[in-house]
Amino acid sequence: MMPDRDLQYLAELAAQLRVDSVRAAAEAGSGHPTSSMSAADLMAVLFACHLRYDFDNPANPANDHLIFSKGHASPLLYSLYKAAGVISDEELLSFRRRGSRLEGHPTPRLPWVDVATGSLGQGLPVGVGVAMAGRLERLPYRVWVLCGDSELAEGSIWEAAEHAGAEGLANLTAIVDVNRLGQRGPTRHGWDTGAYARRFGAFGWHTIEIDGHDPGQIDYALGNARNTRRRPTVILAKTRKGEGVLEVENREGAHGKALKDPGKAVEELGGPRSVRVEVHRPEAGAAPFRFGSNGMELPSYPVGEKVATRTAYGAALAALGSARGDVVALDGEVADSTKTETFGKEHPERFFEMYIAEQQLVAAAVGLQVRGWKPYAATFAAFLTRAHDFIRMAGVSRADIRLVGSHAGVAIGEDGPSQMGLEDLAMMRTVHGSTVLYPCDANQTAALIAEMADLEGVSYLRTTRGDTPVIYEPGERFSVGGSRVLRHSPGDRATIVAAGVTVHEALAAADGLQAEGIPVGVIDLYSIKPVDAAVLVEAATTTGNLITVEDHRVEGGLGDAVMDAVSELGPRVVKLAVTDLPGSATPQEQLADARIDRHAIAGAVRRLL
């Protein structure tokens, strides 16, 4: 049983966290103080008794990881940082102001924050990825995730619960603040912690139900979680939203608002305090396990051979895995189609099967990169759309992840529109700080896969299902932001800009037009973000006519990327792209029906001239 002096200290610390949450939101005039107040006791005990973290060295590999999945409770997190002595009271009261590190929801602008949160249902899936990294690194750190009860309605939470349970991630603990009230009223299950326990238990989790305002029960539960083996733990803590202030305690309509009378609330909570918490540091000398590395030997393919770019991706990733021990691969249960299985066979310890759970696939990649791994996550391009919110938030987190989408465009053929990635280029271009690549042949694919390893931010490479001719020599370098001019003459009357499968159609169209006495240039714009603006500007100013052609929707893809680069110069730009809803047909029939094949390109040039 915890001594009375410790219980008194924890109660004082929790009260201070509530006071500071109220004060920060009051100063900002907005925020979520009541959601912070419900979890104050839980976090007071975690910080004082169980967290292992060196605030002077956030990069210490032995540090525990704390993720606020309920990111709107940021006043509580910032109040904890103040109690730990790493931010001042003055900075605490800069909450939500322009230029402040203390944003409305936490981001890695603060060195102790691993990932941006605030889009609910994401913290636990990312925590699964960090816990996976801990197992890979053979380090004893723990991953603590504070969840709200409202976000347990998100499907991504249960993708995470199933994966963590199946993998037995004993280093992962979810702490659920069951305060009964969501934004607009009561949650589905209210205070029925048993309803949540049955669900987590079904996925193989160790479940503990407690009073979330009893420091003794909280301490026992956190200790129990630390000592549990072979399975993750969820602590389901019954709490009261707005705890400690009569005006808002357990009352509807107080979510996401500063308190009306913060002075009275602070007085009711016992006034400001100056309690400090000394967070225990991890044991010194821990070093993460890393795999060995050999020399780089990318696959090479002879010019003229027909090879699918997805095949080259698999071979290149396996070669990269041999050259770099920090590369890991994740699959969405399609490794035989994306060809990620090539990596899995050569590096089984660094291959993670995430099954058909695309949100968890991306979230695990984000979690792994928190610990310095270089994740490549692959599935069909169409199915990455399901994980777009995770990709968007990865951009907010400034996370370094590499995504590969196969089976893109109408060129997949008979499978039809449900399997066709036709929105992926637009989706990925909009992500903050992203890189978007679309190679047209096997050697180019291999080179770009290697280039991606050291890119910052979210990078995306699109691969093609069918075999395409190799047009580049083995070993040729392709820089991000570059392009290749494949056809050019002083007499060019137009320039065709293509990427991926349409490069081959553009070359065939150019050859046919040349035979008619109509010379045209062809640019392989393999880097769609960033684009090679200099080459595009030169083409726009010399020929004045650009035809973009892409196996993608007309909105937001290659054509729009070209327009962004040259629109101020005023060239004529014709965009050929997929506008109708495809059906089932052969790949060549699909390209013809979408009017993006060689005949359609040649026809567009003739009409333009």
Would you kindly provide a brief summary of this structure?
It contains 23 helices and 19 strands.
Keywords:
38% helix, Transketolase, seven-stranded mixed β-sheet, alpha/beta, Transketo_C/PFOR_II, five-stranded parallel β-sheet, magnesium ion binding, single chain
N-to-C span: 87 Å
The structure class reads alpha/beta
Work out the radius of gyration: 27 Å
Q: What is the percentage of strand-forming residues?
A: 15-25%
Fold and architecture overview:
Residues 307-470 form the Transketolase-like pyrimidine-binding domain. Homodimer. Its EC number is 2.2.1.1. It comes from Nonomuraea thailandensis. Helix 1 packs across helix 3 (40-50), helix 1 (4-28) packs antiparallel against helix 10 (262-268) and helix 14 (358-370) runs parallel beside helix 16. This protein has a seven-stranded mixed beta sheet with strand order 8-7-9-10-12-11-17, sandwiched between helices. The chain has a five-stranded parallel beta sheet with strand order 1-2-3-5-4, with helices on both faces. It has a five-stranded mixed beta sheet with strand order 14-16-15-18-19, with helices on both faces. It is an alpha/beta fold and 609 residues long. Strand 2, helix 7 (155-167) and strand 3 (172-178) form a beta-alpha-beta unit. 38% of the residues lie in helices and 16% in strands.
